[in-house]
């Protein structure tokens, strides 16, 4: 019997790292190459919104639309909202100092038993809640 494949949730910071070819992009590419074929790479629906607004703020509406189209070409699955996930995100937001979007993303990783791949220092406090895989940190986007 083969061991279960590791499951990953990519934070928006990991997606931006890949898109902008920042330090850590090769690690994200490797995760997508290995896990994408097995269907074990996920993002939260909130990452679609975050990616879009960051690109629109920094590069304009056309870049935001292109970024979302490129995102949909990646071998990832988008986890949509439902009430239990929302309640888990609320519990995380109430207990930790992080953004609403990051609470949804962390709740997604918790639900899936996934490793959360990120470059966001806000997540360091969640190490007892979810497995973390840190990429080289960068100043916040927005």
Describe the model.
With 142 residues, the protein is an alpha/beta fold. It has a single domain (8-134), classed as 5'-nuclease (Rossmann fold), CATH 3.40.50.1010. The protein is 54% helix and 13% strand. The chain has six helices and five strands, in the order βααβααβααββ. The protein has helices spanning 12-19, 25-38, 45-59, 61-73, 83-95, 100-112; strands at residues 8-10, 41-44, 77-79, 115-118, 131-134. It has a five-stranded parallel β-sheet. The radius of gyration is 14 Å and the shape is globular. The model has no long low-confidence stretch (mean pLDDT 92).
Let me know the number of strands: 5
Helix/strand/pairing category: alpha/beta
Spans with pLDDT under 50 lasting ≥5 residues?
Answer: none
CATH superfamily: 5'-nuclease
Count of individual domains: 1
Q: Mean of the pLDDT scores?
A: 92
What shape does the CA trace take? globular
Largest sheet: 5 strands, parallel
As a percent range, the share of strand residues is 5-15%
Can you list the strand order of the major beta sheet?
A: 3-2-1-4-5
Distance between the terminal alpha carbons, to the nearest Å?
45 Å
Which series of helices and strands comes N to C?
A: EHHEHHEHHEE
The name CATH uses for the topology is Rossmann fold
- Number of helical elements: 6
